[in-house]
Amino acid sequence: MADFSLAELESIIHQRAHSGDPDSWTAKLFAKGMDKAAQKLGEEAVETVIAAIRADKKALVSESADLVYHWLVVLGMAGVPLDDVLKELEARTGRSGIAEKASRPKG
Ligand SMILES: N=c1c2ncn([C@@H]3O[C@H](COP(=O)(O)OP(=O)(O)OP(=O)(O)O)[C@@H](O)[C@H]3O)c2ncn1[C@@H]1O[C@H](COP(=O)(O)O)[C@@H](O)[C@H]1O
């Protein structure tokens, strides 16, 4: 099991986003804005699909890492916390109160 979490990567991205470090890819993406970040996310998604179709496990791991990193950049840029996505996934399992609340009639 890796000693690393998506929450840690989200935190690193948050720190690097406005670091002003000219060597930081994260800072470059944040400076370029959502169009560029979303484009990179799409490219990494396509590269992940290609790796999967080729049954190239090594490439699938590498492209998945690129994909998840760029996905977190896009979430960060949009101001959507990773936790919101995790809560949505949790609700879909039926484990959390969110699913119950969402399906409850208003009023
Ligand atoms: N996980 C990543 C990560 N995955 C991919 N990338 C970068 O994403 C970029 C784009 O990937 P591509 O394969 O498309 O590379 P490219 O062909 O050179 O890109 P373009 O020609 O399209 O510009 C590359 O420069 C990769 O280095 C990442 N950059 C950063 N991180 C994480 O973010 C942290 C902070 O990084 P910096 O912001 O660079 O300090 C790092 O320590 C890592 O933990």
From TrEMBL:
EC number: 3.6.1.31
Involved pathway(s): Amino-acid biosynthesis; L-histidine biosynthesis; L-histidine from 5-phospho-alpha-D-ribose 1-diphosphate: step 2/9
Principal cellular location given in the protein's record: cytoplasm
Family annotation (Gene3D superfamilies): MazG-like
One Pfam family of this chain: PRA-PH
GO MF assignments: phosphoribosyl-ATP diphosphatase activity
Keyword entries, A-Z: Amino-acid biosynthesis, ATP-binding, Cytoplasm, Histidine biosynthesis, Hydrolase, Nucleotide-binding
Catalytic activity, as annotated: 1-(5-phospho-beta-D-ribosyl)-ATP + H2O = 1-(5-phospho-beta-D-ribosyl)-5'-AMP + diphosphate + H(+)
Annotated localization: Cytoplasm
Family from the record: Belongs to the PRA-PH family.
PANTHER family xrefs: HISTIDINE BIOSYNTHESIS BIFUNCTIONAL PROTEIN, HISTIDINE BIOSYNTHESIS BIFUNCTIONAL PROTEIN HIS7
Family annotation (NCBIfam families): histidine_hisI (TIGR03188), PRK00400.1-3 (NF001611), PRK00400.1-5 (NF001613)
Name the record gives this protein: Phosphoribosyl-ATP pyrophosphatase
Organismal lineage: Bacteria, Pseudomonadati, Pseudomonadota, Alphaproteobacteria, Hyphomicrobiales
